[in-house]
Amino acid sequence: MISEHAIVSPKSSIGKGTHIWHWVQVREGAVIGAECVLAKGVYIDADVQIGDRVKIQNNASLFHGVTIEDGVFIGPHACFTNDKVPRAINADGTLKGAEDWKVSKTLVRKGASIGANATILPGITIGEHAMVGAGSVVTKDVEAYAKVVGNPARKIGVMPREHC
Q: How many Cα atoms are found within 13 Å in the side-chain-facing hemisphere of 4?
């Protein structure tokens, strides 16, 4: 199901049973797996890879270089960044173009959860079944099953395997 108000590039791939709601934008080269839910206002940048049974809540933004594995939850307004030194212009004052960007890859492993308003800095890996608390700013890798919160995000515990 794709809302008539969504903008989905014909050069993207959408898996069977995926629901794409109002005002979602999916760019060229994006791959979205089966049985996913992309809620209102989600932005999926070019070439982003999303596994099966992923839930992405309202107004989350996933930029170029992001890979999401199966069964991940991404809370509302979560933002994945992709450039460690973002600038609008080059050193000579010219506007940066696509060839001027240095994209850093970000990976979210199977079953992880990202809380509302969390910001994931570029080049990060979030481990399987990890839990990132709402409003956290993730500045370094998160190990599997870890529970992290704060700015910068710090480990405060471990997710019990029976809750994963």
A: 0
How many helices and strands (H and E) does the chain possess?
Answer: 0, 21
In eight-state DSSP terms, residue 105 is P
Residue-wise pLDDT tens digits, 34-57: 999 999 999 999 999 999 999 999
CATH number of the domain enclosing 48 = 2.160.10.10
Answer yes or no: is 97 within a domain. no
Total domain count, the chain: 1
- Residue 97, pLDDT > 90, answer no
Residue 89 inside a domain? The answer is no
Q: How far apart are CA 144 and CA 132, in angstroms?
A: 11
Over the stretch 105-135, which tens digit does the pLDDT of each residue have?
Answer: 999 999 999 999 999 999 999 999 999 999 9
Residue 149 placed within a domain: yes
Domain membership flag for residue 63: yes
User: Omega before 122 cis (within 30°)?
Assistant: no
Check pLDDT > 80 for residue 164.
no
Domain containing 119: what range? 7-84+103-163
Query: Can you tell me the distance from the alpha carbon of 108 to that of 128, in angstroms, rounded to the nearest whole number?
Result: 8
